[in-house]
Amino acid sequence: MLLRRFEAYGFKSFADKVELEFGAGVTAIVGPNGSGKSNISDAIRWVLGEQNIRNLRGAKTEDIIFAGSSERRPLNVAEVSLIFDNSDNRIPLDYSEVIVTRRVYRSGDSEYMINKTACRLKDIHDMLGDIGLGRESMAVISQSKVDEVLNSRPEDRRLLFEDAAGITKYKQRKRDALRKLDDTESNLTRVADIMAEIG
Ligand code: ATP
């Protein structure tokens, strides 16, 4: 799934509309300290449905709206859109581009949109979960996560690799299946006991 474009307005330091185009391959964003590089990854996390403002280095929702500077007045709205290339139809929508948008107002009201049509957060989670961009996905890895991975025990690190490789969901399904087998086994024992009693 190719992320084609990123657009943000009013999000943290982006007082003017920012548009970034991503081509195929690797894109690196460089800039001086404090110029807003991490704000881009915060914005991506946010539009993908992050609900915990602390994970976006803020304390309250207002912290993600442009707070003003010596020359600019604060803004009352923050909006971020991710534009995905959907020419392979991985997202089951009849559009070659899918635009996911999130907007929040200083009043606290917020809106989610898919291709400019209002939707629920759940619709975004469901759609993104299907293409591997769900809430727990490894699509965005923060600096603190890198430290955590480097400092973790090999057993815990293995879990991260399994998660990234998509094995975790199968392990969960295996656990569920084994539990059902266990339940069925107990039911069969019970049936056998009852049959012995009445037979
Ligand atoms: P570094 O290289 O040091 O990690 P960076 O390029 O990743 O820096 P960011 O952390 O993305 O920089 O940006 C920090 C800047 O964003 C700070 O100057 C901060 O004042 C500004 N900023 C954060 N939130 C807001 C906000 N709500 N309104 C205005 N500016 C904000």
TrEMBL record:
Transmembrane segments: none
Localization terms from the record: Cytoplasm
Residues that hold ATP according to the record: P32, N33, G34, S35, G36, K37, S38, N39
Highest rank taxon of the organism: Bacteria
Description of how the protein assembles with itself and partners: Homodimer.
Swiss-Prot/TrEMBL domain comment: Contains large globular domains required for ATP hydrolysis at each terminus and a third globular domain forming a flexible hinge near the middle of the molecule. These domains are separated by coiled-coil structures.
Homology family: Belongs to the SMC family.
Task of the protein: Required for chromosome condensation and partitioning.
The protein, known as: Chromosome partition protein Smc
Residue span relative to the full protein: 1 to 199 of 1185
